[in-house]
Structure prediction request, 159 residues.
Amino acid sequence: MAEHADHVHHDHGLAGPALAAELASAERRCLRDGERLTAARRRVLELLLKAGRPEKAYDLMAGFGDGGGAAKPPTVYRALAFLERLGLAHRIESLNAFVACRAGEGGHSAAFLICDCCGATQEFEAPAASEVARAGAAAGYQLRGITIEAHGLCADCCG
Ligand SMILES: [Zn+2]
Ligand SMILES: [Zn+2]
Prediction:
């Protein structure tokens, strides 16, 4: 977070019961999909939910051990790949960072408003996703996912 502007925004990170509830619901989703939320996967998701904003993989590695040792990169990358696959997290390419998704169901097309000043991000359902999917199908592509990343300044940073 230190690399961003020094004014503090309301961040939407979770804590306490809200965090526990979100982790429990992720657990249920994994079970339903015949997957397991292993300790490492759960820990990475917990870090993303606590942060409430995009986190880089190396921040997740550093925070992994709760004051103890950092996680090994493959542990974190594998956990992130899993969370992405289940729709519990999204990768934001332009920031090279990951953010927890709380949309509730997997496999949706995400769009992000990203503030280039403070790093705040807001997720919403990609409005143009069906057109992108159509264009992909017309060109014979099998799309793995669609993520729209829109950059600019958030309301707080515009002022
Ligand atoms: Zn999402
Ligand atoms: Zn901002």
About this structure: The chain has six helices and five strands. The two ends are 21 Å apart (CA to CA). Strands lie at 89-92, 97-100, 110-115, 121-125, 147-152. Residues 1-10 have pLDDT under 50 and may be disordered.
